[in-house]
Amino acid sequence: MKTPRIALSLVALLAFLVPAAASFGQGAKAGKPRAIDTIKYPKLHEIKMPAVVRETLPNGMKLLLVEDHDLPQISFRATVRGGRLAEPAGRRGLAELFGEVQRTGGAGTMTGDQVDQLLDSLGAEVETNVGEAAGTVEGKALTETFDKVLPVFAEILTKPAFAQDKVDLGKTHMRSNISRRNDQVMGIAVREFRKLIYGAASPYARQVEYDDVERLTREDLAAFHKTHYRPDTTILAMWGDFAVADMKAKLDAAFAGFVASGPAPAVIAASVPAQTPSLNYIEKKDVEQTFILAGQLGLRLDDPDYPAIWVMSDILGGGFASRIFVKVRTEKGLAYAAGGGMSPAMDHVGAFYFFTSTKPSTTAEALATMLGEIKKIREAPVTDTELQRSKDGYLNSYAFEYDSTGKIVNRLATYEFYGYPADFNVKLRDGIEKVSRDDVLRVARKYLNPDALSILAIGRKEQFDRPLDTFGKVATLDITIPEPKPKEAVAEATPEAIAKGRALLAKAAGHVGAAALAGVKDITSEGTATVSTPMGQMDLKAKVTFVLPDRSANEMTTPMGAMVQVLDGDRGFVKMGPKSQPLPERAVAEMKRALYTDFGCLRLLKEGPSGTPKAWAGGDAEFEGRKADDVLIGVGDGVFHVYLAPDTGEVLGTRRSAQTEEGAVDVVTAYSNYQIVSGLRIPFASVQKVKGEVKSDVKLTAVKVNAGFAEAVFKE
């Protein structure tokens, strides 16, 4: 069924369909009768349902079997009660990891790679997934190879191996997803909206963090499987080129060893607390538009009022001719896409959602327009044309829900899983046909309340046409990704350790050149860098302009052309030729942290002895085979290490945690070849390593201090 995430993907689609949408909406605006509205459609033919054989194996597994001999192929889908609802306390993210490693981690005596090779050789597929309330194992095979695929499918379902290397890889993928979760505004909007609607702790909205991933183990996966993957909680649907009697016998043999012990664990839908209306803002500097999402709790799919809600939602925000789209896009030209609807759930209440994105200077106008249409649909009946167009749209698309045996069988299996009647969709269709204008007005007034909405705006408030608080009290949401807890014990920042840390930094500043350091305003370097990338080793020429305290421009000549990466305070962007684009906020955060360590920790040594940022002694250490004094530096939520030579105070290098596509990793930078420039001791060579492997090797050829800079390099 649809979820807000799926429905909101329409935003991207609408952007490609603007011309058609605009002309469609203009016709509706003018109120002129259109030829398409005068067409009279005959009543749709009844859909012919295939014969579904329902059986139960001796072990309690339910079967839905459908013969379909059109193609020499057999498809299958096992649905097991569990999912995020069944995650044990303190094991957030377990379902996500399970869904990946059940397939990749091997099964029975076969490794995951061996399973891949076998399925590839047979032209077959088997995939796994875990959602809110269930896990699935599904796939397909040719009729002639099915007997070889069935044992693999059965073992993945009943005997997953959860190989440790694949568990580790799955956790790496999860960390990567966490590190990138704030890159796309759409993902942020849906994620935070669900928190507002359901509560941040709800399994329908809760968020996995680095520390959650760290806690997960192979033993957790095995225990989850043992508890929840049982024949009496499994529904197996199969359809394709087989005889029912033969297939039942094969399944009985394949799953003979799959037995349950004791009562099945209870996995029930989570309670949904009453929603608290709110107006919320998320600051995001790297977007050119404001994204607006508003909504409130809705209904279950089987609620008697859902047919009328569907029609009301469709008229209000469901398509090119919907009221929100026509008003926001066609009449006012505020956005390329706007709309919304009611997204139901099978076992808990769903949500209303309404969305648009607009330029910052029309944020308040777009929001007010959208809210105005939500209010208006509660005030008077919809028109006959609107009602008929919406109902026709549903009824004319109804057949496409039954245009393949797979869709039919999967729908029936879903109904079976959630306890819906097999003919539920027919009843829903009949309900849509009976919806009247009065029904639409009634449910709009009963369920849709403009004063009870949760509203979320994401963008740059300083550019809004009106302050957001003109709509009410604003809560600013923090979407900063929490840093993982350090795996090593961090020395306590006692008063004594802080005093010693400042003294060590002062000694290091003296070694660099305290007098010159106090007067440095900008520093420019030129040099070369050899960088290790996923595409191989790359040689670059680079010019770096560092304007203290918080501006940096890195001009690089790469095999793909010239590129400039700029940090200007809180703003970061990259330029290639005449084009520029904002950097993701996580990239900006990494660049801001790096300002303290560039040029051998120049900024840190200039500011650190005075107590900003916070610094404290971590004790004796070893860095790259040399004895060192360890000084810990607190910047933001993180801590990094600076290693100083005990005798001179020279900066030997740094170690910090960085967020990469693989999650958090330790980045070690070693400085060498110090030379004196304008009274400053500057390292002309640095090597950066991750997990012991060299990622970059930088050699400077020229450095200038307080030579000035071209302001144009900081312009987009």
In a nutshell, what does this entry contain?
The protein has 716 residues and is of the alpha+beta class. The chain is built from 23 helices and 25 strands. It has three domains: 4-40 and 274-401 and 421-476, Cytochrome Bc1 Complex, Chain A, domain 1 (2-Layer Sandwich), CATH 3.30.830.10; 53-186 and 198-254, 2-Layer Sandwich (Cytochrome Bc1 Complex, Chain A, domain 1), CATH 3.30.830.10; 495-714, Lipoprotein localisation LolA/LolB/LppX (outer membrane lipoprotein receptor (LolB), chain A, Clam), CATH 2.50.20.
The proportion of residues forming helix, as a percent range, comes to 25-40%
Low-confidence stretches are 1-30
CATH homologous group name of the largest domain: Metalloenzyme, LuxS/M16 peptidase-like
- CATH class (first level) name of the largest domain: Alpha Beta
In terms of structural class, how would the helical and strand content be classed?
A: alpha+beta
- In total, the number of domains comes to 3
Head-to-tail CA distance between termini: 43 Å
- The CATH architecture assignment of the largest domain turns out to be 2-Layer Sandwich
CATH fold node name of the largest domain: Cytochrome Bc1 Complex, Chain A, domain 1
Going across the biggest sheet, name each strand in turn. Answer: 18-17-16-15-14-13-25-24-23-22-21-20-19
* Rg result: 31 Å
What profile does the largest beta sheet have?
A: 13 strands, antiparallel
